[in-house]
Amino acid sequence: MTVWAAVLVAGIGCYLLKLAGLSVPASVLDRPVVARVADLIPVALLAALVAVQVVGDGRSLVADARLVGLGAAVVLLVLRAPFLLVVFGSALVAALARLLT
Questions:
Q1: pLDDT digit string (tens) for 21-77?
Q2: What angle do CA 50, 77, 40 make, to 5 degrees?
Q3: Nearest Cα to 53, choosing from 36, 34, 70?
């Protein structure tokens, strides 16, 4: 299968998935459980992506400065720090951890 055929098949699949989502009746979408799950899915996907990027290194798990930076970000978020402070603070902590190792 060529690359363009794979791109075409993926594009058609995405379109059909979008079409399937639009064909769901409104009565199903108005249920509180469905609305709650729809609100939480992006959060779960983002958390999974962050976890893979922080502790994954190819096919192995690592604990390095990225994990320390994530810990700093969690602490700053719990303290309700502004978003830019969370980003720069965690980057600074990760950089200092890399410098010390």
A1: 889 898 888 899 998 998 999 999 999 999 999 998 888 889 999 999 999 999 999
A2: 55
A3: 70
Which pTM value belongs to this model? 0.65
Torsion of CA 84, 85, 86, 92, to 10 degrees: 110
Contact between residue 93 and residue 72 where contact means Cβ atoms under 8 Å apart:
yes
In whole angstroms, give the CA distance from residue 40 to residue 38: 6
SS3 state of residue 56 = strand
Helix, strand, or coil here: 62?
A: coil
Q: Which of 10, 29, 101, 19 is nearest to 63 (CA)?
A: 101
- Going from the C-alpha of 19 to that of each of 13, 15, 35, 40, the distances in angstroms are 10, 6, 19, 22
